[in-house]
Write a structure and sequence with these properties.
The complex is a heterodimer. Chain A is mostly helical. Chain A is 80% helix and 0% strand. The chains are: A mainly alpha, B mainly alpha. At the A-B interface, α3 and α4 of A face α1 of B.
Chain lengths: 121, 140
């Protein structure tokens, strides 16, 4: 897995969390910016997933392929579900959901890296 | 315009609005995390630590029930959520203590091992928040 790509994704997710946090403080609801940002994260995570799966098929030994694939599926579910759930809450608590998603996604990407290593996980 | 008579619950489902939105989101995340982890553990290496992995699966079920109970918010769902969150609290305390006392039985981290230390101790705090929120959104 490319360290640069993972770092980019983590930075995107943390920035989204920060932006959503600001939205909460401003007492605004989830807007287009949050949804587009979540969409962007989803796309980049998908790119990373495709690259990683290609490497797994090519013979890379992760600590557990099953766990890694599990993390891929789980991670890909977070942005769309968080987006919909946060969007449906027409108060400041909507962006709070997105902030939690951003933080969670950052942690998930770090877990991807851990599980990717042969003796990680 | 004809008015539709719908059977309406006396209280709107408030558990899933406001701060409850975030609570349900976190519960859903844990339902996903615990469920996925339990699934992989049981499918690939069940014999390594059957007790730990079965408890992992139990935790996942409890999280799913809490998520659904809080998200639906109807009277019966609230009761389900109270039972689930209480079980969760007892679970994290019991499994936490057991995993510290008997490390051999818990070679891999599960959601409730060591009071949820592998998850930033959120599993320890979450049921307390869940029960507090349920109490806060009680009617009357």
């Amino acid at each position: 897995m490319s360290g640069a790509l993972v770092a980019t994704i983590v930075a995107l997710c943390l920035a989204l969390a920060a932006w959503s946090g600001i939205t909460v403080l401003r007492d605004r609801k989830v807007g287009l910016s949050h949804l587009v940002w979540l969409g962007l994260v989803e796309v980049v995570v998908l790119v990373q997933a495709v690259i990683a799966i290609a490497r797994l098929i090519g013979g890379h030994h992760a600590s557990s392929a099953a766990t890694f694939v599990g993390y891929i599926i789980g991670t890909l579910l977070v942005p769309p579900v968080a987006g919909l759930w946060g969007l449906a809450e027409r108060t400041r608590w909507g962006p709070a959901v997105v902030a939690v998603a951003g933080l969670t996604l950052s942690v998930l990407m770090l877990r991807w890296q851990q599980v990717w290593r042969p003796n990680g996980g | 315009m004809a008015e539709e008579e719908k059977a309406v619950e006396p209280a709107a489902p408030v558990t899933r609005t406001g701060p409850g939105r975030v609570l349900v989101a976190v519960y859903a995340l844990f339902a996903l995390a615990a469920g996925a982890r339990a699934l992989v553990q049981i499918a690939t290496k069940f014999s390594d630590a059957p007790v730990a992995y079965l408890l992992s699966a139990l935790a996942a079920v409890v999280y799913v029930l809490a998520t659904v109970g809080l998200a639906r918010g109807r009277r019966l769902s609230r009761r389900l959520a109270v039972v689930a969150c209480t079980t969760e609290l007892v679970g994290v305390l019991a499994v936490g203590t057991w995993s510290v006392a008997d490390k051999a039985e818990f070679p891999d981290a599960t959601v409730w091992s060591r009071y949820g230390s592998g998850y930033g101790y959120v599993p320890l705090v979450l049921p307390v928040l869940g029960l507090a929120w349920l109490r806060h959104t009680r009617r009357g």
